[in-house]
Each structure stands twice: as C-alpha cells, then as structure tokens.
Known about the structure:
This protein is mostly helical.
Amino acid sequence: MKSFNELLSETRDLYAGLNNPRKALKNAQRLVDMAPENYEALNLLGAILYELDMEEEAYIYYKKALEFEKNSIEAMEGLISITNDSEDYESAIKLADQAIKLEDKDPYPEFKENPEYHQRLMAQIYIEKAYSLYKMGEISKSKEVILKTAKEACPLEKELFDEEWEILLEEE
C-alpha cells in the first residue's frame, strides 16, 4: 500500500496531466479518507471535482480545506472560480481581495519554493477578480487590475494578462 505522500504525489501528477481524471478522483478520495483534516488532500479533491464539473462538491472540499488551513491560496482560488461561475461577482471580488492579502502566508511549500507556480496561481486570482469587475460593468477597474496591478504583482505572467484582457474584450 502506498504511503500518504506517495499517493499525494501520484495524484498531483494525475491531476496535472488530466489524462486519467477518474483515477485522480479515486486517489484524492483515498487521500481524504487517510487524512480527513489534511488541507492539501482536501484542496486537491476540490480541484479534481471542479475539473470534472462537479462544482457543488468541489466547493465543499475547498471550504473544508480552508477550515484546516485558512491561508490556503489554492483553496481560495478554487472558491473564487466557483463563485464567478455562479455569477456572484461581488463575493468573488471579496474572496480575491482576501486571497491577495494572504499571498505571503500560504503554508504550501510549493508556493514559496517555485516562483512560477506562485505567480501562476496569483495571476489566476487577479484574472478572476478582473473578470468579476468586467461582468459587473466596472470595465476601467477591470482593465487596471489585469493590465497594471496584476502585471506588477506577477511579472512572470505579463503576457498572460494581455491575452486574458483580449479574451474579455471578445466576450462583448
């Protein structure tokens, strides 16, 4: 039988490739069974459920992850995505602002050790915030978030923000 850490690593790899989402889901459920208070396992299960369009279930696991680790940026990002998907843009903005304030407090080692991962995750939060503002008709604020604030906070992702702004404009 695999150890928790071996199973966690395998499940992350399966999730990253999304080549076998059902196996990733089964593994993540085993992880939560093995360690029901482990925020990484809860968050990973939430992320896999979200990718499988099981948003209500994903929401529950992201919330549980935050119960055990209130500074989990990954869980916050998942909640922001789900909140935007449900068109509750005001709540999504509040969650994004909360996540941005938590940026330096996230305990996940990958977050601190890998600047690309860190900035990609933070970029997604800024993009979600800009999307919410845009959908609420706050076009100038949205543009400022995505083309100025986010670029300053996440310099490794500058091109991504330009692409996302163009996608928002195409939605009109």
